[in-house]
């Protein structure tokens, strides 16, 4: 576990009046394994638990004081702080329902405290909602920090020796383990590979990393079963590689931009309820953008740069030219002729 004291709980939820830590251990353990572990991945989660176990024996009080004072933490301590906040609010959300009901040998009763006014169901629901909001906000903060570390990580070749600081070594170690997680921030097989890219095309997305990962099945379906069927798999796979590598070529940028708009509109359509006024509008916009891009590609297919043009030839949209090449007609007795045809006489 990565929380072992009441003082750590109160770092993130100072209003809680829990005095007996043993009463929440089960909820904390469930929160770690059901909510946090999949975000970090098994390897990084186990490494964080190991780090906490070593710190707990010597410097847990120092860690608490550093968090309270706002001092800069090393990468593993930062990861611990972000993870503890997730676990705290998820555990409190689980705890509140169980705490309001007391099951004993005589039956089931409603629990209350002598020195507090019992909370009504409306307040309990509001508390749970608040915990849930804080938990998801903390998850997004954790994923955002891991993403920033990934961009700042230092890939080192086996043949190259680089003198790295202790902080950079920790970052590289964390990133390498996080790459194996299902929640790693980048999907290298998609035209929309990250939450940041989707944010440029999606309505009220707010760069929500957790939601992006949950949308990956929809994004994969849209690209593979809608986009590729229309534009061709080889053509799209080539553009995915171009987009990941970055490009300033105007034809590439134009096509990738419109393909991303199509994917975002289809994804929005699949996420909305049928009662939402944007439900039909999103689908109609996806169709219109698709038709416009198809027309543009067919009108400019001969002007596309290589190797993009070669990939588009494999697309079902490619229009084979039906104009026959002009050939010079035979003219009898013309200069340079090697043959003379005599007229047919009856």
Fold topology:
Elements: H1 6-12, H2 25-40, H3 42-56, H4 60-69, H5 75-99, E1 101-104, E2 107-110, H6 121-152, H7 166-178, H8 195-199, H9 209-231, H10 233-245, H11 250-271, H12 278-300, H13 308-312
Antiparallel strand pairs: 1-2
Helix pairs in contact: 1-5, 2-3, 2-5, 5-6, 6-7, 9-10, 9-11, 11-12
In words, what does this structure look like?
This protein has a two-stranded antiparallel sheet with strand order 1-2. The longest helix has 32 residues, at 121-152. Helix content is 60%, strand content 2%. 26% of the residues are buried. Strand 1 (101-104) and strand 2 (107-110) form a beta hairpin. The protein has helices at 6-12, 25-40, 42-56, 60-69, 75-99, 121-152, 166-178, 195-199, 209-231, 233-245, 250-271, 278-300, 308-312, and strands at residues 101-104, 107-110. The chain is an all-alpha fold and 346 residues long.
What is the 3D form?
elongated
Biggest sheet, spatial arrangement of strands:
1-2
Structural class of the helices, strands and pairings? mainly alpha
How much of the sequence lies in strands comes to under 5%
Give average pLDDT, whole number: 87
Q: Low-confidence parts lasting 5 or more residues at pLDDT below 50? A: none
Helix content: 55-70%
Could you describe the largest sheet, including whether it forms a barrel?
2 strands, antiparallel
- Gyration radius, to the nearest Å? 31 Å
Order of helices and strands: HHHHHEEHHHHHHHH
Short description:
The chain is mainly α.
Keywords:
13 helices; two-stranded antiparallel ribbon; about 60% helix; about 350 residues; mainly alpha
């Amino acid at each position: 576990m990565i929380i072992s004291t009441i003082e750590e709980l109160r770092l993130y939820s100072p209003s809680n009046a829990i005095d007996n830590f043993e009463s929440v251990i089960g909820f904390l353990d469930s929160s770690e394994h059901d909510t946090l572990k999949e975000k970090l991945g098994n390897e990084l989660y186990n490494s964080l638990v190991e780090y906490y176990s070593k710190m707990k024996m010597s410097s847990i009080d120092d860690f608490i004081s550093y968090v309270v004072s706002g001092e800069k933490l090393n990468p593993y301590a930062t990861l611990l702080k972000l993870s503890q906040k997730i676990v705290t609010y998820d555990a409190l959300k689980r705890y509140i329902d169980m705490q309001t009901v007391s099951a004993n040998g005589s039956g089931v009763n409603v629990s209350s405290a002598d020195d507090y006014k019992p909370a009504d169901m409306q307040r309990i629901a509001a508390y749970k909602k608040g915990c849930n909001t804080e938990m998801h906000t903390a998850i997004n903060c954790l994923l955002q920090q891991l993403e920033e570390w990934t961009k700042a990580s230092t890939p080192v070749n086996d043949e190259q020796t680089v003198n790295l600081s202790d902080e950079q070594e920790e970052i590289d170690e964390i990133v390498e383990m996080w790459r194996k997680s299902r929640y790693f921030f980048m999907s290298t097989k998609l035209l929309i590979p990250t939450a940041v890219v989707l944010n440029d095309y999606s309505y009220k997305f707010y760069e929500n990393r957790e939601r992006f990962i949950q949308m990956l099945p929809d994004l994969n379906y849209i690209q593979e079963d809608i986009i590729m069927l229309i534009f061709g798999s080889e053509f799209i796979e080539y553009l995915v590689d171009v987009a990941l590598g970055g490009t300033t070529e105007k034809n590439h940028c134009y096509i990738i931009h419109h393909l991303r708009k199509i994917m975002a509109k289809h994804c929005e359509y699949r996420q909305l309820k049928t009662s939402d006024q944007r439900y039909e509008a999103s689908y109609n916009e996806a169709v219109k953008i698709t038709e416009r891009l198809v027309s543009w590609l067919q009108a400019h297919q001969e002007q596309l740069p290589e190797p993009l043009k070669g990939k588009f030839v494999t697309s079902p949209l490619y229009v084979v030219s039906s104009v026959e090449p002009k050939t010079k007609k035979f003219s009898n007795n013309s200069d340079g002729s090697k043959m003379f045809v005599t007229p047919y006489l009856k």
